[in-house]
Amino acid sequence: MGEVHFVGAGPGAVDLITLRGKMLLERADVLIYTGSLVNPLLLDFTKETCVTHNSACLTLDEVIDRMAEAVSRDLEVVRLHTGDPSLYGAIREQIDRLNRLGIAWDICPGVSSFCAAAAALGVELTLPSVSQSVIITRYQGHTGVPASESPASLAVHGSTMVFFLSASLLDTIAADLISSGSYSVDTPAAIVYKASWAEQKVLRGTLGTLHEMAQSSGITKTALVLVGKVLGTEYALSRLYAPDFSTAYRQGSASVPKADTKKEDL
Ligand code: SAH
C-alpha cells in the first residue's frame, strides 16, 4: 500500500519549501495541490509521470477517492497545502477519512505565510515588554468562527494579531480592534500581499490608515493583516543576551541569583 503525505508548500517562493517536502514531491506518483494558493512552479519538482490534480476543482469526496485509488495501486500521494498544513488547511477532515479507510498518512510541516510576512516586514512578532503572544485568527467567511473567538473579544489582550483570510474586511478589523480599547488609531498595522512571491507587496501604516492602504493598492485577497506595537519602535532588550545575565552557556558580568538563570527566562 502507498501512503499519503500532507506537505506544506511554504508561503510561495519555490525555495521556501522544506528539503523533506521537496523530496516527497520528487517521489510522488500522484499530486493533489491547492491550486488557488500553491505556486505552480513547485509542480516542476515532480517526475514526468506524476499525475496532478488541482483540489480547487474537487470536493472532499473526490480528493479522498483519488487518494484511495492511488494508494491501492501502491502509489505515493502528496497532498500539497499552502504554507503550513496545520493552519486553515482543512486537513483534519481528510485525515479522519483516511483513518477510516486504513490508509497511512503523515504530515511534513511548511513555512506558514505569517512567518514569511514577518520576514518581509523585517520584524520580530514577540518583543519583550511589548507582546509575547501572537494571536492567529480570521474573520468569519464561508467558515464560521466560534462566538467566543470573535476578533473583537481576542483584541482585549492587545497582543500581536495576525489576520488570515480577512483582507477584504479592513474597516471591520480596524473598528473592532479600536473599540476593544487595547489598540488605538495609531497602533501600527501592515498588509502583506503574497509574501515571498515575486509579486509581494508590503504596506505599512496604522489601524487608522489600513483602509486607504488597501484602497490605493487594490489588495483584497492572498494577504495577511498584522497589527500590534511590535511593528513600532518601542521595546525592551531581551534578558537572554543581557551582559549581566548568566545562563548554562555564559557567565554574566554581574552576580545573578541562580533562580534567575532558568531556561524559561529568555
Ligand atoms: N496554511 C496557510 C494558510 C491557508 S489560508 C499558511 O500557513 O499560510 C489562506 C490565507 O492565507 C489567504 O487568504 C491569506 O490570508 C493567507 N496567505 C497564504 N499565503 C500567503 C502569502 N504568501 N502572503 C500573504 N498571505 C498569504
Description:
This protein has 266 residues and is α/β, with parallel strands linked by helices. It folds into two domains: 3-108, Tetrapyrrole methylase, N-terminal domain (Cobalt-precorrin-4 Transmethylase, domain 1); 113-231, Methyltransferase, Cobalt-precorrin-4 Transmethylase, Domain 2, CATH 3.30.950.10. The chain is built from seven helices and ten strands. The protein has helices spanning 19-27, 60-72, 92-101, 113-121, 151-154, 170-179, 210-217; strands at residues 4-8, 30-33, 51-54, 77-81, 105-108, 134-138, 160-164, 188-193, 201-206, 223-227. The strands form two sheets. A five-stranded parallel β-sheet has the order 3-2-4-1-5, sandwiched between helices. A five-stranded mixed β-sheet has the order 6-7-10-8-9, sandwiched between helices. A hairpin with a 7-residue loop joins strand 8 (188-193) and strand 9. Helix 2 (60-72) crosses helix 3. The protein is globular, with a radius of gyration of 22 Å. It binds S-adenosyl-L-homocysteine. S-adenosyl-L-homocysteine (SAH) is lined by residues 11-12, 37, 81-84, 87-89, 112-113, 116-117, 164-165, 192, 194-197, 221-224.
List keywords for this structure.
Methyltransferase, Cobalt-precorrin-4 Transmethylase, Domain 2; alpha/beta; five-stranded mixed sheet; 10 strands; five-stranded parallel sheet; binds S-adenosyl-L-homocysteine; 266 residues
How would you briefly describe this protein structure?
The protein has 266 residues and is an alpha/beta fold. The chain has helices at residues 19-27, 60-72, 92-101, 113-121, 151-154, 170-179, 210-217, and strands at residues 4-8, 30-33, 51-54, 77-81, 105-108, 134-138, 160-164, 188-193, 201-206, 223-227. S-adenosyl-L-homocysteine (SAH) is lined by residues 11-12, 37, 81-84, 87-89, 112-113, 116-117, 164-165, 192, 194-197, 221-224.
